Amino acid sequence: MASPPLYFFLLFLSVVSAVKLPLSAFSHHTDQLVPTDPYLHLRRLADSSIARAQQLKQPSSIKPNEDALSASSAAVVKSPLTPKSYGGYSVSLSFGTPPQTIHFVFDTGSSLVWFPCTSRYICSGCNFPGLDPTRIPRFVPKASSSSRVIGCQNPKCKFLFGPNVKCRGCNPNAHNCTVACPPYILQYGLGSTAGILLSEKLNFADLTVPDFVVGCSILSTRTPTGIAGFGRGRESLPSQMNLKRFSYCLVSRRFDDTKVSTDLDLDTGSGHKTGSKTPGLSYTPFRNNPNVSNSAFLEYYYLNLRRIFVGRKRVKIPYKFLAPRPDGNGGSIVDSGSTFTFMERPVFELVAEEFAAQMSNYSREVKLEKITGLGPCFSISGKGSMTVPELTFEFKGGAKMELPLSNYFTLVGGVDNVCLTVVSDNTVSSTGGRSGPAIILGSFQQQNYHVEYDLENDRFGFAKKKCSP
Ligand SMILES: *[C@@H]1O[C@H](CO)[C@@H](O)[C@H](O)[C@H]1NC(C)=O
Ligand SMILES: *[C@@H]1O[C@H](CO)[C@@H](O)[C@H](O)[C@H]1NC(C)=O
Ligand SMILES: *[C@@H]1O[C@H](CO)[C@@H](O)[C@H](O)[C@H]1NC(C)=O
């Protein structure tokens, strides 16, 4: 018999390659779920992550990319980012004259910026933990001298409604129509919002952006606050401000409403040389979705995810899931508006099975998986330490995201059980196939990373970093 080939040894090595971690690796998480029902809260976050994935996968609205906007002046402007109990991160922005400061969900998976608006704003199904739906802060256009309703013939109306927007009662040849841009309705995971577009002043400490298109929502469902869209659409904040790059560092979350914040840096371009890399960051190019007729897919930040490792073992994910196919479906995106990372069922099963295989010393807690919507879950009761394989995402160009334990496992119910913080679902589209991105990298997996969206050079940069001040 011939001697075993080299890969045999590599395979053998892979079996023993795992990180052994004291339970204190979770220390900052141990108090995270004490006050409320821990299972219920995780369940909610898992459900909202799945609903979010379903919406990203089958978006309804059509949004074209057109019309250039003038560049702004100053270099880097900052805005605080804060983790919230509803699962997202909140960014505060200041609109109007005089300025009114409003909190938004920071969302790289959608593009419109909108706020709860007018004293008549209604939010139904908005009983989120730590939030009183009758007291959601709103923007009051009447109190701002710079608020203007966007007209139907204003080119910015097309940001949302496309080049063929219907302006009822307007003579298309006379450009003096006073009809407003039509109301919008947007879907977000389980929630939705409706309102009209305003032109407003967006104020930062050293920079004012005039004529910023912002949604004035008067009716929403299941959305805790307004949403600041940082996607690739024309109406997004980075597009309207013509940002060269933006970056953030998400503080480790406990699903509470801490006051701790970090900076969201918005780089308008005069602060660095074109093409320069931020020291210490690993980069991978963004990827375009080949289906240019599906404008929703053009809003997402697709990554070139090449490999997923559990320990040293490469999980053999078919390429059709990693990269978008010619019809635009499949592929991996990064999304700050999803809490837990989503993987389509076939991908999820491969990853979950590999964790289960390498963690066979621990008893599997299937019941807990059903309750929380996360999985696989394991009992670590009575163990002083646990051995967990590392979870690594490798991108085109070799950039590797070797996740810290607390970015992919969470303690559940005190310190007796842990669950992988990845979700999946069982839906297939009406045509029987799976639509939209197959893998969505959520904010939970981005904690304690310095993350940069380099729009100018069309690439994604990241590095591990302790984000808490
Ligand atoms: C719009 O302009 C046309 C001529 O171009 C004029 O006849 C019409 O009265 C104007 N309408 C308004 C509402 O100003
Ligand atoms: C692009 O996406 C749209 C909408 O999802 C779909 O109808 C169309 O068939 C896709 N185009 C191609 C070339 O597959
Ligand atoms: C798992 O079991 C194997 C074999 O029984 C043992 O060598 C290894 O140390 C165990 N690992 C842990 C973390 O208990």
From TrEMBL:
Gene3D superfamilies: Acid Proteases. Transmembrane segments: none annotated. It comes from the Eukaryota. Pfam families: TAXi_C (PF14541), TAXi_N (PF14543). Residues 1-18 form the signal peptide. Keywords: Aspartyl protease, Glycoprotein, Hydrolase, Protease, Signal. The keyword RNA-binding does not apply. GO terms for biological process: proteolysis. One of its GO terms (molecular function) is aspartic-type endopeptidase activity. The active site is at D107, D335. Residues 89-463 form the Peptidase A1 domain. Belongs to the peptidase A1 family. PANTHER family: OS07G0603500 PROTEIN-RELATED, PEPTIDASE A1 DOMAIN-CONTAINING PROTEIN. This is Peptidase A1 domain-containing protein.
